[in-house]
Amino acid sequence: MLVLSRQRDETIMIGDDVQITIVDIRGDKVRLGISAPRHIQVHRKEVYDAIKRENEAAAKMKPQDMTDAIEQESQAKKLKKSEPLENQQKPEGKDTESERPNGVRRSNG
Question: Is the pTM of the predicted complex or chain greater than 0.70?
Answer without folding.
Answer: no
